[in-house]
Write a structure and sequence with these properties.
This protein has 14 helices and 20 strands. It is of the alpha/beta class and 399 residues long. A 7-stranded mixed β-sheet has the order 10-13-14-9-8-15-16, with helices on both faces. A 6-stranded mixed β-sheet has the order 5-4-3-6-7-18, sandwiched between helices. The longest helix has 16 residues, at 177-192. The mean pLDDT is 94. This is Aldehyde dehydrogenase.
Amino acid sequence: MKPEKVPAAITTFPSSAQIVPEPLGVVLIISAWNYPFMLSIDPVIGAIAAGNAVVLKPSELAPATSSMLAKLLPEYVDSTCIKVVEGGVTETTELLEQRWDKIFYTGSGTVGRIVLAAAAKHLTPVALELGGKCPVIVDSNVDLHVAVKRIAVGKWGCNNGQACIAPDYIITTKSFAPELVDSLKRVLERFYGKDPLESTDLSRIVNSKHFQRLKELVEEKKVAEKIVYGGQTDEKRLKIAPTILLDVPQDTALMTGEIFGPYLPIVTVEKIEDSIDLINTKTKPLAAYLFTKNKKLQQDFVANVPAGGMLVNDVALHVANPYLPFGGVGDSGTGSYHGKFSFDCFTHKKAVLIRGFGGEAGARYPPYTPEKQKILRGLINGSFIALILALLGFPREGR
């Protein structure tokens, strides 16, 4: 919160310059259901640290967490600074009709567009933490067992795929795909057993509506026939087993929309270098992952894949580094937070220049004589002589 001193330009001599972070005012934070506590508290901490007042709207799809926040926050924080508003679509719509100094939303792109449209009425700035189809490129020259373990825990260990940074699909070569599939099968059986629906380490699907949505994604014949592992479901317990699919047609709903569940399609290409072009035919993802020992491929990946964030040779762990910003780009969101970036998200960086009364440059003021114009042109062109003449008050004038 301390003002940051920055260099003052010689053209404003004598002066000092600083950047003063100031709170935006009263902010609205709308959180998501998949990590309902963290995705509520994390941005609230940043907003309060920056000096704002906050209205928090927890997700109604995680009702236990929502009611817990509504009960406990007023007991332990200043209720004049932080308010919790529970409810569903009606309450959220009412909140969005109010004038805010910033809106922070975590969730789907569909609702993100509604939030952005509502914010536009008042020119309210927004931070949108959305999702997208996060790709994983798997080269053949990797430690396959380690790579597959990391992919598996990043996909199914992250809320059974119900995470915005979970791998959405894998890209590998046609020749390497069978070996990758076999390794995934072995690791998944080791992690979740022969009957993964009985595993206590596998999250349930959040509700019946999302269960049906996911079930419908693989009921289409040209998708169902591409399942090479898993696919078991238990609607009563809202459980879906880890499911691997190979070369699902690109025009299916599974491949065009964000999956947000336990299905992991594998897309094959002739050469691993073709994977970058394939990723770039889709919208910009929130996260992009690459497993390789090839430094050239790694450099091309970092340079040519637009994404909110990326990680080489692992999955999801980039969000654990507080010195890295977390946020999307394009359809996967706008703005970032985590660590100091949370503070920055909820502040305005106010530019402050403070001058003394000395250092008057006569050439600055009209009437603009040829002599003054010559000095001014020199200043624009970076002439040191023109700068000295201006600071010495040439051309001389009466007061």
